[in-house]
Amino acid sequence: MARWFSAGARCSWRRLVICSLACLLIIQLYSFFSRVGARDPRVDDAKENGYYHPGRVWLDTDGNPIQAHGGGILFDEKSGTNYWYGEYKDGPTYHAQKTGTARVDVIGVGCYSSKNLWEWKYEGIVLAAEERNETHDLYKLKVLERPKVIHNDKTRKYVMWMHIDDATYSKASVGIAVSNSPTGPFEYLHSQRPNGFDSRDMTVFKDDDGMAYLIYSSVRNKEIHISPLNGDYLGVTNRTVRALVGQHREAPAVFKHQGVYYMVTSGCSGWAPNEALVHEAESILGPWESIGNPCVGANKDFRVATFFSQSTFVLPMPGAVPGSFIFMADRWNPADLRDSRYVWLPLTVRARNQRYTGLPLWSRVSIFWHKKWRIPLRKNGEIDYVTDLHHEQRFGEQRRPATK
């Protein structure tokens, strides 16, 4: 989430402030009314087990709220286990300066494990903050955001990349850590500006051929940069590709379907939500084409604010029809960042042979709003689509999203 604005972005500052305040007020009200009914996997309730309730408190198997903000999922093939890494924000929210952004001191990267993507066991802080050394990148008064972990098949190491910054967001770098185990501990190596470019919101993507890439907001959030990682995933090559130049996009979440690459991004509006866009490319190195807002369902206010959340990751939906994914997003609460919520929703990609001439570009990718849903189960070889009673659309079907 950008806490820095360029001169071009400041041109509509007054309108942005008004819209942001309105969105944050709605988030506060929603958070207040959704404190009840936290999803607790310890409760044996057949009617609720396995269901996602986007925006509600989500508890781990110990009964504590999950702290994995701005995170991503690693599926470990050896153990058949999913690992969810994210910012551990279970501390007080404050402002470092009167005009500074809301923040929580760095605690570290939290890790949770699950076999079913619904019941999450807390594995601990796998990369901890530095309490005393003020010059260290992980010093508690600095910034650690958007940690992502990938596995290197050659070195057999688990490699974590993250956004590293100072309290004023002027360092704008990426940090790298490594571990022999998905549950850590991770050893922090160093930070860098990839090929000399500033780097803020970022992600990493591992392709089918084992190549991995760093994707990050750069040039003061004016554009997205993509750099291949080297063989051990501990640095970038000397190649940098510019994408979405001048579009002021951040929070990239990259995924692939049928040989085509997709990227969901958000605009730059601080902690306040804004309109998502999805982009498509034949090669991860581009060129990238923007194809519109993928959000479907709910009302206009929800759609243009990405259901009051911001993208962080997209993962394949296990056991479902081809082209089905889970869109992971954060519903930030700058009044109490530890109470920021998770918005997980089904995302579908229309197969190329189903893309009819004349249909608008946004129909290729859709993120569906559901108050309640679960990953489709298979019964007698057939997919059983189960959603809330207020939205009967199946994940594999496409409808035109209501536009602005």
Automatic annotation (TrEMBL):
Gene3D superfamilies: Glycosyl hydrolase domain, family 43. Signal peptide: none annotated. Pfam families: Glyco_hydro_43. CDD domains: GH43_CtGH43-like. InterPro entries: Glyco_hydro_43, Glyco_hydro_beta-prop_sf. GO terms for biological process: carbohydrate metabolic process. GO terms for molecular function: hydrolase activity, hydrolyzing O-glycosyl compounds. Keywords: Glycosidase, Hydrolase. Belongs to the glycosyl hydrolase 43 family. This is Beta-glucanase. The lineage of its organism: Eukaryota, Viridiplantae, Streptophyta, Embryophyta, Tracheophyta.
